[in-house]
Every structure is written in structure tokens, then in C-alpha cells.
Write a structure and sequence with these properties.
Elements lengths: L1 E5 L8 H16 L3 E4 L5 H12 L4 E6 H4 L10 E5 L2 H11 L2 E4 L4 H15 L7 E4 L6 H12 L5 H4 L2 E4 L2 H9 L10
Length: 186
């Protein structure tokens, strides 16, 4: 299995994020799950890559040319794919992955996970999408999604598509048991 990991290029304000992300990387390696990620060595991206590699796992990076030129590419990966731009990065990561998970991060992290969640809703793929809720990081987002449901903008089956996991074992179990709902407009 290959999991696309979306996360911050920063570490965040608490070490709890780095500790949890490193633990997830080791867990993936121990369970023969390959990490597909943005290819950088900075922030939580670097943490997940290094922890997975140090535990003997495989890490596949996908980085746009303009970021590689800024010397933020992780050069010790199992594979590193160089692409032209951010659109190609997201498409390549989606192509390589069997599942998707958002770790703590910022605007880019949300944009990436929302895009694949939208693609799932539209029936463009049947892969699970998850939020790894380190220290309750995504609780405000879950509240917002519930508000969007209550306002009639997200139907229950599409809200239910999103996996909320607090531990590596819970995340993997949810991936293993995932069944895609019917597609929008069917």
C-alpha cells in the first residue's frame, strides 16, 4: 500500500506534532506502507520522510522544479519524481497513492486533501481520504464540516467519506475497512 501524506513544510509550535508524525512514519515502515509525499526535507515533510526511511520504509517524493531549485528537495529518498509544477505534483501523488492522509499543516495541506476528497465525491477515484488528528488539530475543521452539513452544502455520505484518526493503528484500520459511497449525481 502507498499512502499520500499531506503536511506542513513547517514544524508547528509544539513538538507534539513532530513526535506524532515520526511515530506514524515508523508505523508505516513497520507495516510495509510506502509514503508518497511532497519531496521536501523541511518541516513535517522532512519528519515523516526521515522517520519512515530510518525505520526501513520506502519514501517516494514528488517535487516541482521551482522548489527543487530552492534546494529543499530531500535527496535520500527511495524515489524522487521531479515535475513541472504544483498541478503535476498533486496529480502524480494521486496516481501513485492508494490512500490519502492530511497531517497537521497549513493552507497547502488543506488544499491538497480537499482536492482529493472532492475527486472522491465526484467518483474520480475510490481511495480513502483521512485527517490524522494530532492533539485535536483538526477539531475546528470537523466542526466547520458539520456546519456545512447542517447548512445543506455537504450531504451525509460525502461527509462520511472522511476518516478521522487519532492513532496510526486507527488510521490503518480505517483504510483497510474503507468502502466508497455512491458518487455524486448518481
Amino acid at each position: 500500500m502507498r499512502v499520500a501524506v499531506y503536511c506542513g513544510s513547517a514544524l508547528g509550535v509544539t513538538e507534539e506534532y513532530s513526535v506524532a508524525v515520526a511515530s506514524l512514519g515508523r508505523y508505516f515502515a513497520e507495516h510495509q506502507i510506502d509514503v508518497v509525499y511532497g519531496g521536501g526535507h523541511v518541516g513535517l515533510m522532512g519528519v515523516i520522510a526521515n522517520a519512515t526511511l530510518e525505520a526501513g520504509g520506502n519514501v517516494i517524493g514528488v517535487i516541482p522544479q521551482h522548489l527543487q531549485e530552492k534546494e529543499i528537495a530531500h535527496l535520500a529518498l527511495t524515489e524522487l519524481h521531479l515535475v513541472a509544477d504544483m498541478h503535476q505534483r498533486k496529480a502524480k501523488m494521486a496516481e501513485l497513492a492508494d490512500a490519502f492522509v492530511a497531517l497537521p499543516g497549513g493552507i497547502g495541506t488543506l488544499e491538497e486533501i480537499f482536492e482529493v476528497w472532492t475527486w472522491a465525491q465526484l467518483g474520480l477515484h475510490n481511495k480513502p481520504c483521512a485527517f490524522y488528528n494530532v492533539a485535536g488539530f483538526y477539531e475546528p475543521l470537523f466542526t466547520m464540516v458539520k456546519g456545512m452539513q447542517d447548512a445543506g452544502f455537504i450531504k451525509q455520505p460525502y461527509a462520511d467519506m472522511i476518516i478521522q484518526a487519532d492513532s496510526p493503528s486507527q488510521l490503518l484500520a480505517a483504510f483497510d475497512g474503507y468502502q466508497s459511497p455512491r458518487k455524486k449525481w448518481q
